[in-house]
Amino acid sequence: MPVSVLLVLLVSGCVGFVSGLVGVGGGFIMTPALIFMGVPAPVAVATGASQIAATSFSGIMTQTRRKAVDWRMGWLLATGGIVGSASGVWLFERLLRLGQLDLIISLLYLVLLSGVGFLMVQESYALIRGRVTRGVSILRRPARTVAHVLPFRIAFPRSGLFISVIPPLVLGFGIGVLSAIMGIGGGFILIPAMIYLLRMPTNVVVGTSLFQVLIVASLVVILQSAATQTVDLVLAALLMAGGVIGAQFGARVGAGLKNEHIRGVLGVLLIAASVKFLWDLVIPPTEYYVLGGGLW
To answer: Where are the transmembrane segments (predicted)?
Structure first.
């Protein structure tokens, strides 16, 4: 399909700007943006994963130099993610052949974006209203979580933890499935889970998350290329170029803004995107049948 190069660069640049502003990957914004532009959902999901893999590689190099990666935890999360991504690609292919993939992707994004957006707006509003105690967010980390009481506990010296391997494996598996089906890195889910569920220190959370995302996104690209042939290399190159440039500007602007304001703006954007998905699901299309080249 013909797509304007300038439009793709502009959209990817804006998504990269938001990613640099907030400090997380932009897959959960980029994939919906591509779908709204008319790119078929299977291509948007698979190609978005290639961009996530490239940006994650850049980020993990920086975090490695800072020694901000818990490699033992990262490999454990990646192990679950590998199994999850393989399962997700298998499910992705089955849904694609049944003709239900677009509907499933839209429903998942509707639920995910609206839920995360609402939580971000709620927390941002609470912080702006001053509902903090001694500078600690209202989202307090519990003293002990399920990860501390389940069996098969091992030590994670870099994070200073002694927890069960079951929650990291399950968490990695879930992120892998979502990455394969929705074309997201999962950092905006993985990072809060690592902080509040696994109780990892914040100085190693971002680097460890990027390592898991890099492994999973790279595997998703390979599996999608082999199973569904839905990775568009030209589109991926354009997304990477625009995203890298936009992320640099976003990081500079974000350094001068308060975190609660940034989260609030992003939450509003996510809610707006979920409304667009809901609109497309409810409103009857102009054309009920579309002839295309076929993706399977």
So the answer is: 30-53, 74-92, 104-128, 149-167, 173-197, 204-227, 233-250, 262-279
State the pairing for strand pair 161-164/153-156: antiparallel
Q: What is the pLDDT of residues 137-156, one digit of tens each?
A: 444 445 567 777 777 888 88
The closest alpha carbon to 188, from 16, 14, 11, 22, belongs to: 22
As a whole number, the mean pLDDT across the chain is 76
Q: Are 140 and 157 in contact (CB under 8 A)?
A: no
Categorize the per-residue pLDDT at 292 as very low, low, confident or very high, splitting at 50, 70 and 90.
Answer: low
- 253-262 contact pairs (CB < 8 A, 24+): 253/17, 253/20, 253/21, 254/20, 254/21, 254/22, 254/23, 257/21, 259/127, 260/123, 260/124, 260/127, 260/128, 261/124, 261/128, 262/21, 262/22
Cα dihedral across residues 215, 216, 220, 223: positive or negative: positive
Determine whether 294 is exposed, middle or buried from the number of CB atoms within 10 Å of its CB (0-12, 13-18, 19+).
exposed
60 and 207 Cβ atoms separated by less than 8 Å: yes
- Determine how many CB atoms are found less than 10 A away from the CB of residue 116: 19
